[in-house]
């Protein structure tokens, strides 16, 4: 296995709740009130729609706000990876990834592990350069049991809700998360910070018109059927964990340009400070050992979200 290359789940397409538009000569992200499933092919007009997008819309009167899914892994943090991420917006490449305690950062001396004070306490993160960023892989359809669609977000509501749901569903299903019949659902809310305008975020629920007892029974039966034919879920999870750990950053540079354009748009001075590497020793460490999800929940009243 090539060292430094993160081995991630095979991706068949993307799930988004927005798109990139041109305004005043600039390409800017625009939020939407529905899901869109796209392929991995991008043209001047945007990402090409995936065939499943139209198929799912026909059952929902044209507005795609529910997507039936299954998960690939039983471990929540393999399906949903969340961290504080900073991208070099000029070079369009990952620069620093942390969890509120430690970070991996490109420096003039190479890759280093340094204290991570989270964006609020990091002088390099000013101007929205660093923010919570998550990748969520899900299985849509029956064509490829190991192929996934990826949903990327910097929305706090989506990250917090998805993290909580995954932990809860794992608990109630007795660690059969990958066998539960679930669906992505788009929800809306408004806050004082949004001035009454709706904010849309992503949630996970059981399939429509399915109760918890029925869903658990289906998950139990699927787990039995898989075991009988030799499906090893534990080995799959372990292999995935090793693959993620094999890379310094999950995102490769060929994908970073599109990620930066959608989630880290330019907002004035986007240059990385010339003395960024010289300041790393002065960054204070996190105050406690809470997980990133716990830190994000504690900051919910202070973060303005867009999803």
Could you please describe the fold and organization of this structure?
It is a single chain. The protein has 307 residues and is an alpha+beta fold. It has one domain. It is built from 7 helices and 12 strands. It has a 9-stranded mixed beta sheet. The chain has a 3-stranded antiparallel beta sheet with strand order 4-11-12. A hairpin with a 2-residue loop joins strand 2 and strand 3. It is globular. 32% of the residues are buried. The C terminus is likely disordered.
Strand coverage percent: 25-35%
Mean pLDDT: 84
Tell me the domain tally. 1
* Annotation field: number of helices: 7
Span from first to last CA?
Answer: 37 Å
How many E strands? 12
Output the structural class.
alpha+beta
Biggest beta sheet summary: 9 strands, mixed
So what's the overall shape? globular
Strand order of the largest sheet: 3-2-1-10-9-5-6-7-8
**Could you estimate the helical fraction of the residues in percent?**
10-25%
As residue ranges, the low-confidence spans are 269-291, 293-297, 299-307
Pfam families: Gp3-like
Protein name: Hydrolase or metal-binding protein
């Amino acid at each position: 296995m090539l060292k430094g290359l993160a081995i991630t789940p095979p991706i068949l397409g993307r799930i988004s709740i927005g798109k990139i538009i041109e305004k005043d000569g600039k390409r800017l992200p625009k939020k939407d009130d529905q899901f869109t499933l796209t392929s991995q092919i991008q043209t001047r007009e945007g990402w090409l729609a995936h065939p499943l997008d139209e198929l799912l819309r026909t059952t929902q009167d044209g507005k795609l706000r529910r997507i039936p899914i299954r998960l690939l892994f039983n471990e929540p943090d393999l399906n949903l990876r969340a961290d504080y991420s900073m991208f070099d917006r000029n070079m369009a490449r990952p620069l620093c990834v942390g969890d509120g305690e430690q970070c991996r950062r490109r420096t003039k001396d190479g890759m280093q592990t340094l204290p991570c004070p989270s964006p609020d306490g990091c002088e390099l993160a000013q101007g929205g350069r660093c923010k919570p960023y998550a990748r969520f892989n899900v299985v849509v359809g029956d064509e490829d049991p190991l192929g996934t669609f990826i949903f990327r977000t910097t929305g706090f509501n989506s990250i917090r809700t998805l993290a909580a749901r995954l932990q809860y569903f794992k608990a109630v299903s007795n660690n059969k998360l990958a066998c539960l019949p679930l669906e992505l659902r788009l929800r809306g809310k408004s806050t004082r910070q949004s001035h009454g305008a709706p904010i849309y975020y992503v949630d996970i629920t059981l399939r429509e018109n399915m109760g918890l007892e029925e869903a658990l029974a289906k998950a139990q039966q699927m787990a039995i059927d898989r075991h009988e034919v030799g499906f090893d879920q534990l080995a799959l999870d372990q292999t995935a964990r090793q693959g993620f750990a094999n890379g310094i950053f999950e995102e490769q540079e060929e994908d970073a340009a599109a990620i930066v354009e959608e989630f880290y748009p330019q907002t004035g001075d986007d240059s990385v400070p010339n003395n960024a590497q010289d300041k790393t020793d002065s960054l204070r460490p996190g105050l406690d050992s809470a997980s990133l999800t716990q830190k994000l929940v504690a900051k919910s009243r202070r973060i303005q979200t867009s999803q």
